[in-house]
Automatic annotation (TrEMBL):
The lineage of its organism: Bacteria, Candidatus Roizmaniibacteriota. InterPro entries: aa-tRNA-synth_II/BPL/LPL, Anticodon-bd, Anticodon-bd_dom_sf, HisRS-like_core. One of its GO terms (molecular function) is histidine-tRNA ligase activity. This is histidine--tRNA ligase. PANTHER family: HISTIDINE--TRNA LIGASE, HISTIDYL-TRNA SYNTHETASE. It comes from Candidatus Roizmanbacteria bacterium CG10_big_fil_rev_8_21_14_0_10_39_6. Its EC number is 6.1.1.21. Keywords: Aminoacyl-tRNA synthetase, Ligase, Nucleotide-binding.
């Protein structure tokens, strides 16, 4: 849970909360009912009661089970989790007890949690749970575990909605490594990797069959500053040719000095 808070904090989200519950608080409640309660935020109280009713329970039974869940209080396990999070320096309002949180996976056996971002309407962006019996379904011994799954598409959408992507991600690469011919593809890939490892935004041209003039036109259209060319002469001399598109100048640079050029 602490890790999930750190993830969304480092991504730049300011207004999010981790909702926490414990599946042991649902003890005695049948699994189909848990599945229905898990939909509370989407279909509301009356919708949950009606769905439970369609599973063979009377309306009174359905209402009583839902009331029992919603009136539950944190148990010792949850209180110890919240105490840990406070001791670790997380704000008190960053994690909250939510008795309606059900996580409708049949293998959940203990604490469960979800990350919800305020004003993001697509739902929770991460969910996790303890699963003490899951591994035992596939081998002879039970091995307790805890894990979570981050919803990448939703997290991406939320970051776009709140403008959390750095501006640098929207800029064109500074450098494009051309492919002089298919026989020099591996050299181009090697140089592109070298630049990327040095945090220089680099693109490698995608089609080794296109001639150099077409590749240069593509770089101009993309507003790329530099194009690197590695042909026969460059390969022999362990150099690269760097074309500076704005000034239409070019430079011959040793490959072991390439990073220094930029």
């Amino acid at each position: 849970i602490a890790l999930t808070i750190d993830i969304y904090t480092h991504l730049g989200f300011k207004d999010f909360v981790v909702k926490v519950n414990d599946r042991s608080l649902f003890k005695g409640i049948d699994y189909p009912v848990i599945v229905a309660i898990d939909k509370l935020a989407k279909i509301g109280t009356e919708g949950v009661i009606e769905e439970i009713h369609t599973k063979g329970y009377s309306l009174i039974e359905a209402k009583n089970m839902l009331d029992r869940v919603l009136n539950a209080q944190p148990n010792d396990t949850l209180n110890s989790i919240f105490s840990y999070l406070r001791a670790a320096g997380f704000a008190q309002d960053r994690s909250v007890f939510d008795p309606s949180l059900a996580r409708s996976f049949s293998y959940s056996t203990g604490p469960i949690w979800e990350v919800v971002i305020a004003h993001f309407e697509q739902g929770s962006v991460l969910g996790g749970e303890r699963f003490d019996k899951l591994i035992g379904r596939f081998q002879k011994e039970d091995i307790p575990g805890t894990g979570f799954a981050l919803g990448f598409p939703r997290t991406y959408e939320a970051m776009e909605q709140f403008g959390l992507f750095p501006e640098s991600l929207h800029l064109a690469p500074r450098v494009m490594v051309s492919i002089f011919s298919p026989s020099y593809l591996s050299s181009s890939v090697r140089v592109a990797s070298l630049l990327r490892k040095s945090s220089i935004a680099t693109e490698i041209y995608s089609d080794a069959t296109h001639d150099l003039s077409k590749q240069l036109k593509y770089a101009v259209k993309r507003d790329i500053e530099y194009v690197i060319i590695i042909g026969e002469e460059e390969e022999k001399s362990h150099t690269v040719t760097i074309k500076e598109l704005a000034t239409r100048t070019q430079h011959s640079v040793r490959q072991d000095k390439l990073i220094e050029f930029f």
